[in-house]
Amino acid sequence: MSGREVDGDELSRRCDFSFHDDLSPTQRERHDFMREFLDESTLTMDYLLPGGDHGAARASTPVTPNFSMSSTSAELGGEEDSGPCSKKKEKMEEEDKKVSRRINRQAKQKLGEKRQREPRFAFMTKSKVDNLEDGYRWRKYGQKAVKNSGYPRSYYRCTAQKCNVKKMVERCHRDPTTVITTYEGKHNHHSPAVNPIRSSPAVALAPANFGHFDHRVMCSSGNSGINDMHQLNTACGGFLSNPSTYLPSLTPPYLPQLQVPADHGLLQDILPRMSHSDIKRL
DNA sequence: CGACTTTGACCCGCGC
DNA sequence: GCGCGGGTCAAAGTCG
């Protein structure tokens, strides 16, 4: 990644657990109720950035045919392939690749194909390790420094074929013990068996190692306009009502707080299967 | 040797 | 139009 920094203000806001300025009174009431409930049950849940840009349709800039080929194909096209001059040839091929990539993108733009964003959701986890084991295999494809934060953001893609789920992992700069994991998209396959050799020992699924987490999970959706839990759950592709779809290895007993009995109104959207005794405690 | 990580370069969209 | 920042690509390096 380049040394360019990424604004950490967003992270600051994300780390502000008491944020609910944009909620209506009813939503705020629900929100407060949820907070109260969650605080007592050690599970924290909150909205993040309801006005965030994630998933928001962006106006596409008009395609301008002015991308210059003067220093690439046009220029290179006039040169002769001087046999042993393989370096030159390689350079030409590289340039050609770049140009064709650019042309592809512009062609897509012309066809009105906007870069589409899958719904996203994020959750915060207290953890010593950045990349929490979630049962899927991920390949890191990028990392960027976060502005005003000493911690970089890492970009991962699911390694399964035809599955373009991505996740971003970053540490909250206000609370370095908190890891913010943002998922984008939904897996189109079952979670592969986790290779015990390759998985990090710190995140192995043994309950003993689960002590690295404090069971505090914070869910959010970056989609704008999401202002109640049901919408949030929907936008999360059902994550909240079925977190194991996304976090198969964090199913009970590892995430016991994510269980709730039926018929508890709002709560069941988020905590679908909590035991009666848990509710009684409230 | 394949899978994965690292990292500089690049592209795109947005705000000014 | 320009600069900035988020996100992605892809070559090179590393590891088992």
TrEMBL record:
Pfam families: WRKY. It comes from the Eukaryota. Residues 127-192 form the WRKY domain. Residues 1-28, 56-116 are annotated as: Disordered. Residues 61-74 have a biased composition (Polar residues). Residues 99-108 have a biased composition (Basic residues). GO terms for molecular function: DNA-binding transcription factor activity; sequence-specific DNA binding. SMART domains: WRKY. InterPro entries: WRKY_dom, WRKY_plant. PANTHER family: WRKY DOMAIN-CONTAINING PROTEIN, WRKY TRANSCRIPTION FACTOR PROTEIN 1-RELATED. This is WRKY domain-containing protein. It comes from Zingiber officinale.
